[in-house]
Design brief:
Layout lengths: L3 H26 L5 E8 L10 E6 L2 E7 L5 E6 L3 E8 L6 E7 L6 E6 L28 E3 L1 H4 L9 H4 L6 E3 L5 E3 L8 E4 L2 E2 L17 E8 L12 E7 L7 E5 L4 E5 L2 E8 L2 E9 L3 E15 L9 E18 L2 E15 L14 E17 L2 E17 L6 E3 L10 E17 L3 E2 L3 E21 L2 E4 L5 E8 L4 E17 L4 E12 L4 E12 L7 E11 L14 E6 L11 E7 L10 E3 L9 E14 L2 E23 L2 E26 L2 E15 L4 H4 L12 E3 L6 E11 L3 E10 L27 E13 L5 E9 L9 E2 L11 E2 L5 E2 L2 E5 L1
């Protein structure tokens, strides 16, 4: 029987969708007698230019504007004939500005525009125009990362997520995950070609697409566009590369790195060959792009003895894309990402040697089909996508796990298998520009996703011991059963970029979404502004505020099917002290928080984690070679999922609830130095304050749970970095030499001391312990050797930690450990030799 709650919510969603669709169509119908113009913008080689900005000026004012699509075409409507000024701009291209006579409303016109690329390496070139008007851009500009530049860093990133720590506000956490704005990875969203590719069960990013297949990378912290959902920290968006007009290929890192110990060859240490090719299957109609890499990493843990000190990661990572140009106004894109990978000895470190570290196998895949066509003077994009993640976690044996202040022994306590899938259908329509008290660019859309998660978690006993090996507590697990969970998540949104004049614009939007498994419906209003006070548009102020909602991962709703814990305590003589305590698993019903934008059904698990955030920023183009940006961001997150032991109606229970909260503040200064991508540097300083409940439920419902449930503690979030300086970039030298430095200085990550029973010790806000300050100077030196007219070889020498700075890997965090507070382990200075084959 269908619940009345869902019926009412779905009716409201459908009604709102109908209003959002038919209102702009009715508005577009009342447009008088239009004059239709089509523009085709190409470069010197007749290649279409995407996202070029077209403006028509009359009497010194912008009367119409458009942005080119993937075919280089843009359309606009004007209402009166006359003498106009046509201005076409695109970054890194010389601005075109010319007069245009529009004579009659009866004859549609077509205008071809050729933009010349700015070659900044030639001193005789003079740039005659400016960049596009910043008021035409959104109010929350993301941090852009050029994949080609990122791939040339000494760390040699192989995937999209490997490159993300080059962005201010993004760090690589101690467990290898990505942290944005102080929050864990599961609180952010990863979109590839507008499709959510995170794990439906955990919210993790997984193994992302090869970096060589990516055209653009953008990271936005709390973006105010209503099209984005399912996050409270940030959104990572990436667009993949289309096959070009000519066939090309490259082979990067084809040679393995060998391990040499005491002058002897001891096998292969690393391999990461990457093959990329693409080109036209049918000239001007059908294009293919393919990127495949094989990854083998044997990561040595410097705090353990050889040969029992390596984690072994293997992966095949493949992304294929086919683009079809059906007509000038219609295109189709199909892509498939396939990435099976395995990790032997996951989480290996001094305190968890190989027998305690589990093995993990993952099979991830995403298939996407995107249809783009012109409709009503705008662009309609229809997307269907399917993501599947299969996970298997296996211990090394069946021995009990022993937790000790000096290090853990035995075998990992948990074993699980799960299969999570997500099907998504996305519709997005960007209308042509309308003129009413300014220029309006309206965008409406809908998202319907269906997710499933099925599997089972099994657990064996674990013991907590003191420094002498005496058992203090024993955790037994009973019950547990297979789970099968499903969820519908519909959403509709509307947003308008309202350019009141050439100096001021507003972004106004609202998103209405549901997640049926949570029995909640949510409304997310968002707004921002862009203001450029001067005529030269070199100074820009931006700001905004909005409400954002986390997507509750399906793994949280598998908690009730997990085995239940029975904790037995022992006295000094080894006898049982008191009665064993049995904890039942309970998913709590969230009490009404009074937040008016969330409508909750009265059910257990009615969670709606949300954050309210705002920001202000100033951007200044100081000169052609220097751009700076200063930003302040503040957010408050509420109703975050937390797992805590409680007594409920006289029964001991592990309670999954939404009592968590966090607050973050962030100052950011960034500078782009140099206008030529071959001689360009990026500098950033980020000050961050992020505090909240650290007992995140994902530590128990994720892929690698810890057997013990900690008492909650309010402290610095695990990814908080109070101060971080970052400098990286590229400098081309004569004779095709190139330098790529990467310098980072920051505070160490915080950690939480624990007592003999492995529970958190509250030592106060002012005494938050941290790892020592981190400093690394990495450098990649490369030289291109031309073999033939079309082929070249690039020889690279990546050098990491050139100063040999002590960046400890581990800390003794148990207060009864005789070495409590000591840090140890370090990756010393390292030199490699790489080869790339280029075409």
């Amino acid at each position: 029987m269908v619940d009345e709650y869902f019926v009412s919510r779905l009716l409201v969603a459908r009604l709102l969708a109908m209003v959002l669709v038919f209102f702009p169509l009715a508005w577009a119908a009342d447009s008088g007698q239009p004059i239709s113009l089509t523009f085709h913008v190409v470069d010197e080689s007749q290649k279409p230019l995407v996202q070029a900005q077209i403006e028509l000026h009359l009497g010194g004012k912008i009367v119409a504007s458009a942005t080119t699509d993937e075919t280089g075409r843009g359309k606009m409507i004007v209402r009166v004939a006359g003498s106009y000024v046509l201005r076409v701009t695109k970054r890194e291209y010389v601005t075109s500005e010319t007069s245009l006579e529009i004579e009659s409303p009866d004859t549609p016109g077509s205008v071809d525009v050729i933009l010349s690329h700015i070659d900044l390496s030639k001193q005789e070139v003079t740039v005659q125009g400016k960049s596009s008007n910043p008021v035409t851009e959104e109010s929350s500009i993301p941090s852009a990362l050029a994949p080609a530049q990122a791939a040339q860093m000494a760390s040699r990133p192989a995937t999209l997520t490997d490159a993300l720590p080059l962005v201010p506000g993004v760090v690589r956490a101690r467990d290898g995950s990505i942290g944005i704005a102080g929050y864990a990875e599961s609180h952010s969203s990863l979109l590839i070609n507008s499709v959510d590719v995170t794990d439906p069960a955990t919210g993790g990013f997984g193994l992302s697409v090869p970096i060589d297949t990516v055209e653009t990378i953008n990271v936005a912290e709390m973006p105010y566009l209503a099209q984005y959902g399912k996050f409270i920290a940030g959104v990572v968006t990436a667009e993949t590369r289309r096959g070009g007009e000519k066939w090309n290929f490259s082979l990067n890192d084809p040679l393995p790195e060998f391990r040499i110990r005491s002058g002897h060859l001891v096998g292969v240490k690393d391999m990461s060959p990457r093959l990329n090719f693409g080109g036209p299957l049918i000239a001007n109609r059908l294009f293919l792009s393919e990127g495949t890499e094989y990854l083998l990493h044997k990561q040595a843990v410097r705090t353990l003895p050889f040969p029992a000190n390596e984690t072994r990661f293997k992966a095949i990572n493949s992304f294929a894309q086919i683009d079809a140009v059906i007509s000038a106004t219609h295109s189709l894109t199909a892509s498939f990402h396939y990435s099976p990978h395995s990790l032997q000895y996951a989480g290996l470190n001094f305190f968890n040697p190989q027998p305690v570290s589990p093995n993990a196998d993952f099979h991830e895949s995403t298939g996407t089909v995107i249809d783009r066509m012109s409709l009503g003077g705008g662009v309609l994009q229809s997307t269907i996508a399917n993501t599947r993640v299969t996970t298997g976690i296996e211990p090394q044996g069946i021995a009990e796990m022993l937790l000790s202040p000096l290090g853990n022994r035995g075998n990992y306590f948990s074993q699980q298998s799960r299969r999570a899938t997500r099907f998504a259908w996305i519709e997005n329509w960007t209308a042509r520009t309308h003129h009413f008290a300014g220029d309006h660019t309206l965008q409406i859309g809908s998202v319907l996703s269906y997710s499933e998660d099925e599997g089972q978690l099994q657990a064996r006993p674990a013991q907590i011991q003191d420094v002498t090996g005496r058992t203090l507590q024993r955790i037994d697990f009973t019950g547990g059963q297979p789970f099968a969970i499903s969820d519908y998540a519909p959403a509709v949104y509307a947003q308008d970029h309202w350019m009141l004049n050439t100096h001021f614009a507003l972004d106004l939007g609202v998103r209405f979404e549901e997640q049926t498994i949570t029995f909640t419906s949510r409304t997310a209003p968002r707004g921002g502004f862009v203001w450029t006070p001067s005529e030269n548009k070199k100074t820009v102020f931006r700001g905004g505020a909005g409400v954002f909602y986390d997507s509750v991962s399906l793994g949280a709703y598998a908690f009730n099917s997990f085995p239940e814990q029975t904790v037995t305590s022992f006295d000094a003589s080894g006898g049982i002290a008191g009665d064993p305590i049995h904890y039942i698993n309970i998913t709590q019903e969230a009490a009404g928080s009074g937040f008016p934008l969330v409508d909750r059904g009265k059910r257990s698990g009615n969670f709606a984690p949300y954050s309210a955030a705002w920001h202000l920023e100033l951007e200044r183009q100081v000169s052609r070679f220097l751009m700076i940006r200063v930003k302040y961001l503040q957010s408050a997150a509420h109703d975050l999922l937390a797992l805590q032991p409680q007594v409920v109606q006289g029964q001991n229970a592990l309670v999954l609830g939404s009592s968590g909260a966090a607050r973050t503040q962030q100052y950011e200064f960034t500078a782009k130095i140099g206008s030529n991508p071959q001689r360009q540097f990026f500098f950033s300083y980020v000050w961050e304050h992020a505090r909240g409940d650290v007992n995140d439920a994902s530590g128990y419902t994720g892929n690698f749970p810890f057997p013990l449930i900690h008492q909650n503690l309010i402290a610095s979030l695990p990814n908080e970095i109070p101060n971080r300086f970052l400098l990286w970039g590229t400098y081309a030298l004569p004779r095709k030499f190139q330098l790529n430095p990467h310098i980072e200085w920051r505070n160490g990550f915080p950690y939480q001391p624990v007592n003999m029973l492995q529970q958190y010790v509250n030592i106060g806000v002012a005494s938050q312990p941290r790892f020592p300050r981190y400093f690394s100077f990495d450098l990649l030196v490369s030289k291109d050797l031309q073999i033939t007219k079309k082929h070249a070889v690039r020889i690279s020498i990546p050098m990491t930690n050139l100063t040999n700075h002590f960046n400890p890997l581990e800390a003794h965090t148990n207060v009864v450990d005789p070495h409590y507070g000591d840090f140890f382990g370090n990756y010393p200075r390292r030199f490699l030799l790489d080869f790339d084959f280029l075409n």
